[in-house]
Amino acid sequence: MPVLIFQGSCQSSCRKKMEPPMKEKKYPATAVDIFVAFFRLGLTAFGGPAMVAYIRTMSVKDKKWVKEDSFKKGIALCQTIPGATAMQAAAYAGLRAGGPWGAVAAYTAFGLPAFILMVTLSAMYTKTHDLPGVIALFSGLQVIVVALVAAAAIGFGRRYITAKQDILLVVGASVFLALGGSPIIAILASGIFGLVLYKSLIRGDSGLPPTAAETVQTTWKTLRPAFLIALTTIVCLGLLFFIRRDLFSLSILMMKIDFFAFGGGYASVPLLFHEIVEVHHWMSNQALMDGIALGQVTPGPIVITATFAGYLLAKIPGAVVGTISIFTPSLFLLLLVVPYFDRMQHNPSLQRALRGVLVSFVGLLLAVTVRFGFAAHWTPLSALIAACALIALLKKVNILWVVLIGAVISALLL
User: Fold this and answer.
1) How many CB atoms lie within 10 A of CB 312?
2) Distance between CA atoms of 349 and 64, rounded to whole angstroms?
3) What is the DSSP string of 360-375?
4) SS3 for 265-304, per residue?
5) Distance (Å, rounded) from C-alpha 369 to C-alpha 333?
6) In the chain, % of residues over pLDDT 70
7) For residues 316, 320, 323 and 324, what is the CA-based torsion angle, rounded to 10 degrees?
8) 410, 140 Cβ separation under 8 angstroms
9) Cα–Cα distance, 151 to 163 (Å, whole number)
């Protein structure tokens, strides 16, 4: 009997040893779950940066995919690198919830509803923009776009202008763009000047240095997702170069715009204006303003205007290429920078340069406001609409309601 007990216990222990260990679940959600959740959220993603709060509620409180501290750190990262903040916040939440594939799923799903609606509106615009009623409608919407860009400039100013040195960069960037200079040169120059101008303001580390747990070693595993995106992008660009040279040019332009749009989606407006209207002459000033206005009645960030520009240039293929191209660099940079962001936060030189870049966008947005103002058709009523829209936007009224009410008034009275 003791032998049998021993044999039974031995067999039991042997089976336990032979059984493969249970794999610990690495991420709390699958890419499919993340896609569905963010697609639903993207259907109501009106208000641009205001959507960050809804992303936080869903991913931190409701789904419990991301911890509060991690989400806050992610938002700081999203505000540091170029691109639309809400889109990047979605990608960051997806990254924490489901890894790199989760980031791609969240990023794609969150922007997909806006893309579908913008393509539909762009198709309608190309067929109806010459009709008298539509002309009156967009005449009113154009002055609202002036108010929208002006409100963005004021918002940037409130956030970033805190010292005398800032005024120098604001004036310099504004005058440079007004004289026909490239906003990219203004951005790069402001970053360089920031290294000198803010030396007395940003002297050392901002906060405690990163702990050993926060310090990430550079390995292929940490860099692989970003480089896979880069490789895929290079292959696609190569195909476009040989198949559709016009789409290749569109893709390069949109990527360039996204790479330099620091501070959120509105930072892309001066770049879109300069490249699309002034350099390539793909559309008029008024048409770009119409595209921006249409973008405000779709869920998603203001950079969805790239879909409109792509559609006007090359229909559906142009819309697809323009949209993918203006969002790809942001996702690439997010995946590339996430492992090293703690160290970047404590680099004073980087912080000085970044502050110079962000301050320059106040001047760039002011210059574009003036240019849009000259292009719009003004009457006493349209001036009143613009003033009311500006006040409403500064009072944090949802952009969608401002645009819709302005559209109704314009259609009825202008």
Assistant:
1) 21
2) 36
3) HHHHHHHHHHHHHHHH
4) HHHHHHHHHHHHHHHCCCCCHHHHHHHHHHHHCCCCCHHH
5) 29
6) 88
7) -170
8) yes
9) 21
C-alpha angle with apex 365: 71 to 320, nearest 5 degrees?
Answer: 65
Separation CA 320–CA 55 (nearest Å): 25
DSSP assignment of 212-271, as one string?
A: TTT-----HHHHHHHHHHHHHHHHHHHHHHHH-HHHHHHHHHHHHHHHT-TTSGGGHHHH
Q: Is the model's pLDDT at 343 over the cut of 60?
A: yes
43 DSSP 8-state letter: T
Enumerate the domain spans of the chain. Answer: 31-204+220-413
pLDDT class of 44 with cuts at 50, 70, 90:
confident
pLDDT of residue 216: 43
Both tokens of 246, joined, read 């016009």
CA distance 180 to 191: 20
pLDDT digits (tens, 9 = 90+) for 163-203: 888 999 999 999 999 998 999 999 999 999 999 988 877 76
The model's pTM is: 0.85
Residue 357's alpha-carbon distances to 127, 148, 291, 341, 381, in angstroms, are 40, 21, 26, 18, 37
Instruction: Name the residue with tokens 């970003």.
Output: 226
Q: Radius of gyration of the chain from Cα atoms?
A: 24
DSSP, res 338 = G
